[in-house]
Amino acid sequence: MQRSACILISILKNSNTYGYGLDISPDALKIALLNVKNHECQSKCMLIESDFQTIKLPPFTILNLIVSNPPYLTPTKSKTFDRIGEEPDIALFSSDEKGLQSYLDIKMGIEKIPDNLAATCFLVVEIGNGMKEKVIKVFKNSSRSLVIFEFFKVVKDFKALERCLVFKISKIKN
After folding, report:
1. Which string of DSSP letters, residue by residue, matches 62-99?
2. Is the dihedral of CA 83, 87, 90, 93 positive or negative?
3. Nearest to 133 by CA among 154, 157, 107
């Protein structure tokens, strides 16, 4: 768990912005707080113990960018997965056999906070190898939603594997 908040810290250290770190694990948040302090970013962020489904943002918060590296490995892979580091299972393995539950939770959580989204907001999610089309399908819009997720681009990692998906999020005008 020593890497907790590393994406948030990287963004904050390289920009003039404020961010929120979200995690469901109190232990991960303790490590994240230490990391934030070690990198002198404590005045640039707030850490919140929550998941996307139940997130409560401070009033008047406007989000321009949402970044997530959700657990996407299937529970079946936990038996054969060669672990690197000290990441707990909850950070690595999805709660469903398709590895998609976290993406659905993210989508549903964002749909609950349309007033907190900037006019142009982007979502970046990490994906596993071969998951691109399945994850894009998760973010297809439903008729009930007040936001639209538009697939923007895929980002490949250093091994040329599709590693992140970028979506543009727009609010539906009433």
Report:
1. -EEEEEE----B-GGGGGT----TT--HHHHB-SSTTS
2. negative
3. 154
Per-domain residue ranges of the chain = 1-50, 52-171
Q: What is the number of other CB atoms lying within 10 angstroms of the CB of residue 87?
A: 16
Q: State the pTM of this model.
A: 0.85
pLDDT averaged over 10-residue windows placed end to end, the chain, 174 residues: 80 91 87 93 93 87 91 63 60 65 91 92 92 94 82 95 95 77
Q: Superfamily assignment of 52-171 in CATH?
A: Vaccinia Virus protein VP39 (3.40.50.150)
Helix pair 26-38, 6-13: axis angle to 10 deg: 30
